[in-house]
Amino acid sequence: MAIIVQKFGGTSLADAEKIRRAAKRVIKAVKSGYSVVVVASARGQQTDELIADALELNPNPSKREMDQLLSTGEQQSVSLFAMALDAAGYDAISFTAGQIQMMTDSVHTKARIKSIGAERIQKQLDEGKIVLVAGFQGIDENGNITTLGRGGSDTTAVALAVALGAKECEIYTDVDGIYTTDPRIFKDAAKLEQVSYDEMLEMASLGAGVMHSRAVEFGKKYGVKIHVRSSIEEKEGTIIMHEVPQMEGVVVTGATVQKDMAKIDLVNVDNKPGNAAKIFASLANAKVIVNDIMQTEVSSKKANLSFLIGISDLTAAREAAEQIKDEVNCESIFIRDDIAEISVVGVGMRTHYGVAERMFGALAKAKINIDSITTSEIRISCVVNKNQADEALRAVSVAFELDKPPQERTKKD
Ligand code: ADP
Ligand code: ASP
Ligand code: MG
User: Fold this and answer.
1) How confident is the model over 302-326, as a mean pLDDT?
2) Cα(103)–Cα(111) distance, integer angstroms
3) Distance (Å, whole) CA 145 – CA 165
4) What value does the mean pLDDT take over residues 224-238?
5) How far apart are CA 181 and CA 253, in angstroms?
6) Ligand 2 centroid vs 206 CA: distance in angstroms?
7) Pocket test for ligand 1, best of 136, 153, 172, 174 (most atoms within 8 A of CB)
8) Using CA atoms, how far apart are residues 152 and 97, in angstroms rounded to an integer?
9) CB under 8 Å to 291, separation ≥6 — which residues?
10) If you average pLDDT over every residue of the chain, what do you get?
11) What's the average model confidence in pLDDT over 160-175?
12) pLDDT at 413
């Protein structure tokens, strides 16, 4: 029997009524002849609440204990979900990550999946059961519970779809698909029927919280069909898939904002071979994930090096930068934790010009200052003041007509 993986996000499981509604979705797939594996996130805002509980007792809790604590949310969800299915007359069994050998590395709070033992799940499916797996969590080789980073249940779902050779991975959430930009900020955003893995990967890693970026990475690598859709309405959502020819004609697919960021500038570092390597080795050693890197030569002897990081890594990154400062002869370290990054993304940027001008023009018109700019083949990002982030996203969204689906926008060339 073909397998389908269905993932339900926290808001879709917030109360008993919502769990019952989610269970109906699962039952519908079973009735259509699928073997179903369900991945569930912690209910409602539970992960945030657990974090707040931890911080009340300890402002700097150990990451191992955080994982131990946060993983309990997903464990509750899957067992409650299994009970709801049982009450509806369907055989269901729930598992934690440890019970199905969802093996990860040992980087607590942002672990990466290494392998999954699919046999136990397959056996239950073969016996006709619905299998529920706690999202977001894993287990390392020493038996410690790990978590995959905020929003990580999406990654559990796609990884399971790969391990089980599932036909499709459905991501049920509180929006009815992927939009050109966050509809909570730009209410006129248009829904996309499809989006390429590459674009979604950029959008997800640049702040589009609707999908965890590692999930898209897995999807791309193994060609998993990912369908992001509403847990409330029945209609079709958005398919994440390989690029199809007509996508190339679209210059900008979407825009994103990332607010939980900080920027570190190492000012006047000695401009000589090996210094950048030393700085980034120090950051890697502190397990800091670095986003955008910018380096400029300011004279033949000196260079400025800046990088963006997630705000949760700021303490570790600051310490790592301080440690390496003298060795690279850095004059001063300048830190900004009041920034946000606005990005526009589209595979069509590879072959079209004028995108940068349009983006900068929109920000200028809205009187928003740009702190720094980075680009890739398919995106342009600007760092702005955090208190202007939403306004900046709206200005850029209007400039690129993100209220219209790509095929309905004005052709520029
Ligand atoms: P879940 O709990 O189901 O995992 P999330 O809160 O993680 O849900 O993701 C859904 C949210 O992602 C939406 O409510 C929306 O505000 C936000 N979002 C950000 N960017 C986008 C986008 N481009 N398209 C759709 N939703 C987006
Ligand atoms: N519950 C986790 C979080 O809130 C994982 C997830 O929702 O995917 O980040
Ligand atoms: Mg999510």
Assistant:
1) 95
2) 10
3) 25
4) 96
5) 9
6) 17
7) 174
8) 13
9) 205, 261, 307, 308, 309, 310, 341
10) 95
11) 97
12) 52
For residue 372, which amino acid is it? S
CB of 173 shorter than 6 A to ligand 1: yes
Convert the pLDDT of each residue in 386-396 to its tens digit.
999 999 999 99
d(CA 295, CA 331): 15
User: What confidence tens digit (pLDDT) does each residue in 242-268 have?
Assistant: 977 666 667 899 999 999 999 999 999
Query: Two tokens at 23?
Result: 């269970």
DSSP track, 14-56: SSHHHHHHHHHHHHHHHHTT-EEEEEEPPSTTHHHHHHHHHHH
Cβ of 8 below 6 Å from ligand 2 = no
pLDDT, residue 132, reads 98
**CB under 5 Å of ion ligand 3: residues:** 9, 151
Distant-in-sequence, close-in-space partners of 244: CB < 8 Å, separation ≥ 6: 194, 196
- Atom of ligand 2 at shortest distance to CA of 74? 1
207: nearest Cα among 56, 19, 367, 340: 340
**Contact indicator for 168, 35 with CB cutoff of 8 Å:** no
Residue 150 Cβ < 6 Å to ligand 2:
yes
- Judged on CB neighbours under 10 Å (0-12, 13-18, 19+), 233 is exposed
